[in-house]
Amino acid sequence: MRIGDPDFAAPADAPAESTSPLDLLRRFLQGDLASLRVILAIAVIWIVFEVQNERFLSAVNLTNLFLQITAVGLISVGVVMALLIGEIDLSIGAVSGFAAAVMAVLNVKHGWNPWLAVVAGIGTGAIIGFVQGSLFTRFSIPSFVVTLAGSLVWQGALLKVLGSTGTVNLTNSEIIKLANTFYSPVVGWIVMAVGVGLFALITLSGHRRRLAAGVTSEPLGLLLARVGVVAVVAIVAIAILNSDRGLPLALIILFAFVIGFQFLTTRTVFGRHLFAVGGNAEAARRAGISVTRIRVVALTLCSSMAAVGGILAAARLESVNQSSGGSNLLLEAIAGPVIAGTSLFGGRGSVWSALLGATVIGSISNGMYLLALESSVKYMITGGVLLAAVVVDAIARSRRQAEGRV
Amino acid sequence: MNGKGAPILATKGVSKSFGPVQALDDVDFEVRRGEVVAMVGDNGAGKSTLIKAIAGIYSIDAGEFFFEGQPVSIGGPNDATRLGIATVYQDLALCDNLDVVANLFLGQEELLQGPPGVVRALDETDMEHRSHELLEQLSVTIPSVRSEVGTLSGGQRQQVAVARSLLGDPQVVILDEPTAALGVVQTKQVLELIRRLRERDLAVIVISHNLANVFEVADRIFVLRLGRKAGVFDATSTTEEEIVGAITGAEFGNEHEQGEGAG
Fold this sequence. Notes:
The complex is a heterodimer.
Chain A: H1 21-30, H2 34-52, H3 59-84, H4 92-109, H5 114-138, H6 143-162, E1 167-169, H7 177-180, E2 182-183, H8 185-212, H9 220-242, E3 247-248, H10 249-267, H11 269-279, H12 281-286, H13 291-317, E4 319-321, H14 329-339, H15 352-370, H16 375-402
Antiparallel strand pairs in A: 1-4, 2-3
Chain B: E1 4-18, E2 21-33, E3 35-40, H1 47-54, E4 62-67, E5 70-72, H2 77-83, E6 85-88, H3 100-104, H4 124-137, H5 154-166, E7 172-176, H6 184-199, E8 203-207, H7 211-217, E9 220-225, E10 228-234, H8 240-248
Parallel strand pairs in B: 3-8, 3-9, 6-7, 7-8
Antiparallel strand pairs in B: 1-2, 1-4, 4-5, 9-10
């Protein structure tokens, strides 16, 4: 319902969006429901691979899949912070490797307490993000140039820190527990129940508050249906994980960060200003928002999450070496959120897209591995999927522009 | 004539140049409570520059600002906002990717009660409630306060922008070309909105190219020409010819100046 003519302006209390099936279909096709589109894409990918190889949807493989996407998913959460303000960080791969190396060297070679070393690793990421963000805002250098240069610097720093051996083993360190801890079925069910319970509580209390304040709210039935879907998905997921090794700590860490950043971006002043800067930086500035501060904080969070992801990757690999943070990590961490609907042009997207995008990319590479495809084919297929995703984003954007919704 | 007492906002000897271009040259300006002052002038006369200087967007090279008779410095948009000066720009300065509520409250969001120091959540319910109230008071009609601003029509966006400026309880409201690019009906609505602002005892500054609109709504008309003040005229006693003369600097321009005259 695009209102161009004032005569057609509805009263101010009309419902925000029609929820008729036809309208939902139209929004779906226009890319407004990018998340649903991605979930459907994941379903298709899973079915295709399951048909090719029945081990794909086994509990073991799905647990492996989730462990495989943890690191890149965490990095992508940070990437969303940069994308929301319309910037990009090309140093995340190198930063994830360097931060993990700092942690590993402090822990293994200097005998630091493992958790202190983890904090130092994340702090390294934060400082790098702050420095790069400050250079970007202070000298108005495009963020991709600053972070591209940074990428080389931190790659060199990684080699320097690792020293002549070029690798640091974490085999005897506590840190590998981050990626190798699995909880018993009972703990899994408790975590699930608490999580779904909190979600239901927040959803319904929000509904009650809105009704009490006299503003429109989504129909109760729709909200209950949403809670129901989340509960079913959570139960199925826990059942699958429990039939293998149990709920992994790494997955809890991933979800904790996703939910935390989802709250930060959608429910706080900082998050609102993040979207405002990404949508119209000049408008944000005139509204009294410190655009510089928002940009620096966003890039600091981005680098910090790159460090968190790098540390999880190191824990899973049980070592840090010269190729840590290299390979496709950078590309996959940026492509994930974009595939799942976060715009490369700023102001549109969500933290969930980090999780969904990582699942798409992770599923494809996991499935191709199971099918034992040649590297040549894997590269081409992965590249094709990334290209297709960016094309979809561009189409959604030009549709919005055609409707005057830049 | 509307407007009473001492000026609430005044500038004295304000100058501003962009490189070799002297955009403002020794400009004195004042506005009182409950008064609508129209600011007119040809393209490049310095109207927008003066407005942006008052709003804290541009820093001035020379001159002083007075608010309620006291000298003040306006170093940035926040200073202007703190004094109670709100500006609605021609390019509206709205975020198309945010909804109406988010745009209305941008930079002055309301928060839920919570422990200080912890990240506090936005009070969406209260902001939405107040948005409804405000838009109703101003008779603004939009599909929903949860519509993305990018989906609204030009007139609706203008109304949202004006409503937004009122949220901080300002004393001075500056409107930059509020009726440009609007249809007849929507122009009337916006002019009506301006009269309502005056009834609220606000000081209103309106930049406009449309002299018919200016005469319809303004109490005084302030003319800028080539960055200099070309005169101030009482809207009830002047004529369109006289204003055009001042704007264009026609041969008799200087003789028609009132008040302090051009520098």
